[in-house]
Design goal:
258 residues, alpha+beta, Alpha-Beta Plaits, five-stranded mixed sheet, 9 strands, 24% strand
């Protein structure tokens, strides 16, 4: 059940570096709307919403804007000029790497054009619906922070029906763990970890690939990372998932400009 994942470590470091670049107000506001639609409009019972609100506040978004986004997600805010919908785009990067793009938009044509350009300018191709989604399965992921006794973690994971967990060390002092389960078991597993006083930092639904592709040529690696970064920078894009194998990449390769 256990794994010691350098990929999880690199991914977490990349997320931390990317956070310093900052997301736009639009992305952060829409993240709140998505969180409400995926759960409830109560931060106390919605980890995704609570995390989105914290990020929005850290970026300086006013409370009125945050409340408006929550209302839009709950369907209680009337805005006839802006009807938002969730769309998933699929395509390939250099080397046949699969890429899924989750977007939240009020203009399908604009978003499709922006996503297509992000693919094509970096050597990729926007594909048809279903061309890569079959590679991914949506899983529930619980992030635990701090040092944890693995024997206790194993017992609780088995009791709660988790698929597996991954251990990673960010530095000599900071360890974190990701526990992966089926999407419909996420809420149940969260409750079990909470009852056992495990330090839950966050939980989310994530698309996880059934197979990955390794790319060794430096130029192709940089093109793929540029494709992902360009897509993530789009206001309408909420999440980008790929089956690129990051295991043998250094943090410098993943974030060449940092």
């Amino acid at each position: 059940m256990a794994g010691h994942s350098k990929w999880a470590n690199i991914k977490r470091q990349k997320a931390r570096v990317d956070a310093k670049k900052g997301k736009t107000f639009t992305q952060l506001s829409r993240a709140i709307i998505v969180a409400v639609r995926n759960g409830t409009n109560e931060p106390e019972s919605n980890f995704q919403l609570r995390s989105a609100i914290e990020k929005a506040k850290a970026a300086g978004i006013p409370n009125d804007n945050i409340e408006r986004s929550i209302a839009k997600g709950a369907g209680t805010y009337q805005d006839k000029e802006q009807i938002l919908e969730e769309i998933c785009y699929e395509g390939y990067g250099i080397g046949g790497v699969a890429i899924m793009v989750e977007a939240f938009t009020d203009n399908r044509n604009r978003t499709a054009a922006d996503v297509r350009v992000a693919f094509s300018k970096n050597g990729g191709n926007l594909g048809e619906t279903g061309c890569v989604s079959w590679i991914f399965e949506q899983k529930g992921v619980i992030l635990l922070d701090g040092e944890i006794k693995e024997n206790d973690l194993l017992n609780i994971s088995l009791e709660g029906g988790a698929d597996y967990y991954e251990l990673a060390q960010e530095n000599q002092d900071l360890q974190f763990t990701e526990v992966i389960t089926s999407a419909d078991n996420l809420a149940n597993l969260k409750e079990i970890f909470q009852e056992e006083k495990f330090p839950i930092q966050n939980l989310e639904l994530r698309w996880i690939p059934s197979n990955t592709i390794k790319v060794s040529e430096p130029g192709q690696i940089q093109s793929l990372i540029k494709t992902i970064d360009t897509l993530e920078s789009l206001d309408d894009v909420q999440n980008v998932t790929t089956n690129l194998d990051l295991t043998n990449l250094s943090l410098e390769e993943v974030n060449p400009d940092n």
